[in-house]
Every structure is written in structure tokens, then in C-alpha cells.
């Protein structure tokens, strides 16, 4: 009996240990926004959903085509847009973080090769517990939002 | 006696009516009063890939003036995509009377040729221009635009440029008549252009 309990507990703990942050994150509609042929940086956008009870932080993103990949945000100070690198993007428990033009985004800087419409680039997302998730982001031609961005 | 006073009052009223009819000249409806907070703007000449470009070259058209830079990885593309979409929502007759002037506030890195490649991606009506640091600074000042370089903000570039992201709308007569804030919809941009086209 004692053995059985130990076994069950062991399995339960193993299960907990296995449920890494990346297992709780679902990435919806990831894409890279196509830019003019001579731009050195492109933004990647997506929605990150967290189905766990704890806040999860996206701490890093990387990709094989740009020299640097950073997490960025925009601060709108009286109409002046300030782009800043940030150390992490928080995804609240049972909530989501939206990375979209004009706000939070993954910035791919110093592209080694120009990207074309339709290219699919793997993005590796790293979370605060060290777990990772690789997603595929397609390069798409930008379309304008038809609704006002109220957050800015 | 009271008849005299009445007569005098009647005369005064009649004179007032005649005077108003002759001299009162209200602002016509299609001439919007400049909104508070709009800059004076004014003419400028800067360099494009196809030679010098002056605001005056667009008299008779509505010109949208935007300050940005090609390294600007998110805000400028977002604004230019919205502007391009806004122009596409206009009638063909209106469309040909709209020009967008993208003034680079990063003359150290942006060349007229690079700007052309950049703006062509978004819409053929957009013209990229730049000039010396001093020239660009003066134009920005005239339009109430603001920009400042921030070194070391990202690992990629040497610097990014914090900049105001409003779009200034210049009517056919060369006057600034509207300011479109960042994040506006293409519909709002199209409407601003349409209204400004009506300003004589």
C-alpha cells in the first residue's frame, strides 16, 4: 500500500514537473509582417494564450534568419512613439498577451536574407522556466486594421 | 414724444438689418476653422530620389505629411499601411489629388534612393524625402513634429528614433487643416482626406 502511494505521488510529481510553461501556452495566428525590400528589421506578431493558474513570462525569442531577435514594446507619450526593448512579456494566468502592430512585438533585427511573402520562419520562444516552444510564422503582406487602436 | 422714440428705434433696427446684410460675411461652411493645436506648417524643399520636392509642388492636391524613418520597424509601417488603405478607399478622382510626403528624420541613415524603395512598397502616392539634419529639423519644427535619437535601445541598430506619429493634412491651399493621430483607421484617414479636398 505504502509503495502504491509512493508510486502514485511519484507519478503525480513527475506529471507536474513535465507540465512546463511551454505546455500551457498556445500560440494563435503567428505571422511576420512583410516589409519593403530594404528594411533591416521586421516584426513578428501573435497571440499567446496561457491556460495555467500562474503567470508565464516569454523571456526570449530567436530565429535563424536575423542576427538579433528582441522583445519590444511601444510607449506612446503624448503622441511620441518610443520603441523599447523589454526583458519579458507577461502572460497572465488564464489570460492572453496580444502582440500586434503598434504594441508588443518580436523584433527580428539585421535580417541576413530578405524575406519574401509566403516564407515560413521557425521562431523559438523561451519561457521563464527554461522551456521552449517552436512555432512557424508565415511572412504576410501587411493589412491595415479597420478598428481604432484604443490602447495607444 | 413716444412716437419719436419708437421711430428712432425702428430706424436703428432697420439700419442694423441693412448693415448686417451688407457687411456681415460669415465664414462659409466648407472652410473649416483651423482646429486648435494645429501647426502653421508651411512650404519646404527636400530631396527625393527623383530630385527636389517642395510642398508647393502639390498645390491643388491634399498632401499628408508624416515624419518617420525607414529603420522604424513597426510604427511607420503601421501608419503607412493605414494611409495606403485609406487612399484606396477614395474614388479615383479623389485619389489622384492626394500625395503623401514621408519626411525622414534620420538623414544619417536614410538616402533618397532607400526612401523610394521603402515608400514604393506601401503606395505609389507616397514620396520619401530627406535633407540635411538642419533642414529636417526646421520642417519638423514648423509642423510641430518631434524626434529624438535614442542610442543603445536595441542591440540591432545604433539607435532608434523616438518620434511623433501624427499625420498632418495640408489642404489644396497649402494650409494645415487636420492632424490624424497614430492608430487611426483607414476610414478615418480617407474621411480626413475627403474633407480636406473640399477646402478651397
- Most extensive interface between two protein chains, with residue counts: A-B, 39 and 41 residues
CATH fold node name of chain B: Glutaredoxin
Low-confidence segments of chain A: none
Domains of chain B (count): 1
Cα end-to-end separation of chain B:
54 Å
Strand content of chain B: 15-25%
Overall mean pLDDT of chain B: 88
C-alpha Rg of chain A, in Å? 19 Å
Distance between the termini of chain A: 61 Å
Number of beta-strand segments of chain B:
9
Helical proportion of chain A, percent range: 10-25%
The assigned structural class of chain A equals mainly beta
CATH superfamily membership of chain B: Glutaredoxin
How would you describe what is shown here?
The complex is a heterodimer of chains A (152) and B (200). The longest helix of chain A has 17 residues. Chain A has 152 residues and is mainly beta. Chain A is built from two helices and ten strands; from the N terminus they run H-H-E-E-E-E-E-E-E-E-E-E. Chain B has one domain: Glutaredoxin. A five-stranded mixed beta sheet of chain B has the order 5-4-3-8-9. In chain B, strand 6 and strand 7 form a beta hairpin. Chain B is elongated and about 90 Å long. Chain B starts with a helix and ends with a helix.
Amino acid at each position: 500500500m505504502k509503495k502504491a502511494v509512493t508510486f502514485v505521488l511519484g507519478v503525480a510529481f513527475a506529471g507536474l514537473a513535465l507540465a512546463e510553461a511551454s505546455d500551457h501556452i498556445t500560440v494563435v495566428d503567428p505571422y511576420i509582417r512583410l516589409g519593403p525590400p530594404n528594411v533591416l528589421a521586421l516584426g513578428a506578431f501573435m497571440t499567446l494564450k496561457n491556460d495555467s493558474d500562474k503567470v508565464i513570462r516569454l523571456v526570449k525569442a530567436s530565429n535563424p534568419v536575423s542576427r538579433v531577435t528582441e522583445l519590444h514594446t511601444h510607449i506612446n507619450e503624448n503622441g511620441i512613439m518610443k520603441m523599447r526593448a523589454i526583458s519579458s512579456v507577461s502572460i497572465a494566468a488564464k489570460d492572453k498577451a496580444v502582440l500586434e502592430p503598434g504594441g508588443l512585438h518580436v523584433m527580428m533585427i539585421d535580417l541576413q536574407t530578405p524575406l519574401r511573402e509566403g516564407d515560413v520562419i521557425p521562431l523559438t520562444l523561451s519561457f521563464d522556466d527554461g522551456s521552449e516552444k517552436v512555432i512557424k510564422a508565415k511572412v504576410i503582406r501587411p493589412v491595415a486594421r479597420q478598428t481604432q487602436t484604443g490602447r495607444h | 414724444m413716444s412716437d419719436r422714440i419708437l421711430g428712432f428705434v425702428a430706424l436703428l433696427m432697420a439700419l442694423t438689418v441693412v448693415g448686417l446684410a451688407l457687411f456681415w460675411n460669415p465664414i462659409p461652411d466648407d472652410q473649416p476653422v483651423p482646429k486648435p493645436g494645429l501647426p502653421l506648417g508651411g512650404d519646404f524643399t527636400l530631396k527625393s530620389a527623383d530630385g527636389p520636392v517642395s510642398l508647393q509642388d502639390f498645390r491643388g492636391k491634399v498632401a499628408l505629411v508624416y515624419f518617420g524613418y525607414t529603420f522604424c520597424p513597426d510604427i511607420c509601417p503601421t501608419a503607412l499601411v493605414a494611409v495606403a488603405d485609406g487612399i484606396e478607399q477614395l474614388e479615383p478622382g479623389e485619389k489622384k489629388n492626394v500625395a503623401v510626403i514621408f519626411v525622414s528624420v534620420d538623414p544619417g541613415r536614410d538616402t533618397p534612393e532607400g526612401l523610394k524603395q521603402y515608400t514604393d512598397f506601401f503606395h505609389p502616392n507616397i514620396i520619401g524625402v530627406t535633407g540635411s539634419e538642419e533642414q529636417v529639423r526646421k520642417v519638423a519644427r514648423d509642423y510641430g513634429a518631434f524626434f529624438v535619437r535614442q542610442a543603445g535601445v536595441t542591440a540591432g541598430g545604433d539607435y532608434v528614433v523616438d518620434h511623433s506619429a501624427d499625420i498632418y493634412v495640408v489642404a489644396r491651399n497649402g494650409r494645415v487643416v487636420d492632424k490624424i493621430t497614430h492608430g487611426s483607421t483607414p476610414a478615418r484617414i480617407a474621411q480626413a482626406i475627403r474633407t480636406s479636398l473640399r477646402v478651397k
